[in-house]
Amino acid sequence: MKQLPEGALVEVAAYFQVLAEPTRLQILNILRSGERNVGELAQMCGFTAANVSRHLALMTQQGLVERESRGTSAYYRITDPSIFELCDLVCGNIARQMEKSAGRRAAFTSLS
User: What is the pTM of this model?
Assistant: First the structure.
């Protein structure tokens, strides 16, 4: 991030805040394989449709997913697949940090 004005930083923080909730990450992961309706997502996540709908509304507001009404159902799909590149980057970083921590712990356990 280059020197962004405060307003832009607020927008970036709001985007990352949407990703800071495990249920929303689970929903994104399910949508990775294709669009789903709220009922399907709720069943796959193990949450109520109302709970999933609240998460989807926030994700739609931030532009992560888009909604399409078909009859009595609303279907959701990923708006920008590059979100998975971001998530994969973060997951890789966390895995590397965990490997380093495990290596440091192993150095101490070999002393006993």
Answer: 0.83
How far is residue 103's CA from residue 64's CA, in Å, rounded to a whole number? 36
Chain segment 58-92, per-residue pLDDT in tens: 999 999 999 999 999 999 999 999 999 999 999 99
Contact 66, 77 (CB under 8 A): yes
The tally of domains found in the chain comes to 2
Cα 93–Cα 15–Cα 62 angle in degrees, nearest 5: 135
How many helical (H) and strand (E) elements, i.e. helices and strands, does the chain have?
5, 3
Q: Strand runs (DSSP E) across the chain, as ranges?
A: 36-37, 65-70, 73-78
Q: What is the CATH number of the domain that holds 20?
A: 1.10.10.10
Residues 28-47 have pLDDT tens digits of 999 999 999 999 999 999 99
Regarding whether 54 and 6 lie in a shared domain, the answer is yes
Structural domain including 99 reads: 81-112
Q: What single DSSP character describes residue 81?
A: T
